[in-house]
Amino acid sequence: MRILIVDDEFSTRMIVKEIMQRYGECDICVDGDEAVEAFAMALDKKTPYDLVFMDVLMPRMGGIEALEHIRSLEAKQGLLPRDLAKIVVLSVVDEVKTVMDAFKKGEVTAYLTKPLDMDKLIDTIQALGVK
Question: How many domains does the chain divide into?
Fold first, then answer.
């Protein structure tokens, strides 16, 4: 499994990576611009990401805008719904409306609040069928 972790906070990236490296290869980005570039390169190389962890508020390009670009890249590739990356949004509680709007558009698969709770992170990935 290929995993992309996108967050501008070092500690969050390291917590998620520590847990997720048991499940697959993890790449890290510090903002939405890097995430879109990494996602596009992975699609071009035919090694797409299966799971993306995306912070909402980041410098340069925020997470919701990056998610829109990612879903657009997947659509241009003609990916079927079952082949789309699962996307887990990482956010502080007061960004709930923004995240819910993304859920309604079909861009988000799951949502975790920060600071991250490791048990909730593991429960979420298990609910998504990550093994």
Answer: 1
